[in-house]
Design a protein that fits this description.
The chain has about 180 residues and is an alpha/beta fold. The protein has one domain: 3-Layer(aba) Sandwich (Rossmann fold). Strands 4-3-2-5-6-7 form a six-stranded mixed beta sheet. Strand 5, helix 4 and strand 6 form a beta-alpha-beta unit.
């Protein structure tokens, strides 16, 4: 199986992704000028975005990772339930924190993670998501830094998987079927 078998169309080409990520990095760097920042990446989908975004951030920046699950294996619908699979190493106390996500869909994941992390006394806590599938939102969540609003189509590539494959593609594609 190749990714072309599953690809209906390219939604966001690699160069457009990289250009927007550079803009987001510059915007974050301006907003946190004179401060230190902690980027919290939500695995696994956010890892490609984080690794490109962080190269455009010019203030002192640390990173940490957490894993949560909101979808059953192979399922395409959010359950509305979120489980913490792997927690952070670093303390958030008195730090400026940005959550880095590949996509906000129903919003349940980011809502649950925000609620959890707020209890750890960060100095500030914001959300940066590459993709925003706003049409699907079930809970209101803030997205302070947004890469692209996308239509309600099943997308993959650049961190997002189809049954755990194709996260490594440099573009966002729409899945066939
Ligand atoms: C995806 C994505 C978000 C979440 C968004 O993760 O990375 O974390 O779903 O959906 P929601 O807004 O409806 O909660 P997924 O559970 O597919 O895990 P993955 O990143 O490891 O692929």
């Amino acid at each position: 199986m190749t990714y072309q078998d599953r690809l209906l169309e390219v939604l966001i080409p690699a160069d457009a992704l990289q250009q927007r990520i550079a803009e987001l990095g510059a915007e974050i760097s301006r907003d946190y000028a004179g401060e230190e920042l902690l980027l919290v990446c939500i695995l696994k989908g956010g890892v490609m975005f984080l690794s490109d975004l962080i190269r455009h951030i010019t203030v002192p920046v640390a990173m940490d990772f957490m894993a949560v699950s909101s979808y059953g294996v192979g399922a395409r619908q959010s359950s509305g339930q979120v489980r913490i699979e792997m927690d952070l190493n670093l303390s958030l106390a008195d730090r400026h924190v940005i959550l880095v996500e590949d996509i906000v869909d129903t919003g349940h994941t980011i809502a649950a993670v925000l609620e959890l992390l707020q209890t750890r006394s960060p100095r500030s806590l914001k959300v940066c998501s590459l993709l925003d599938k706003a049409e699907r939102r079930e809970v209101v969540v803030p997205i302070h830094y947004r890469g692209f609003e996308i239509p309600n189509k099943f997308v993959f590539g650049y961190g997002l998987d189809l049954d755990e494959h194709w996260r490594n593609l440099p573009f966002i594609g729409v899945a066939r079927g």
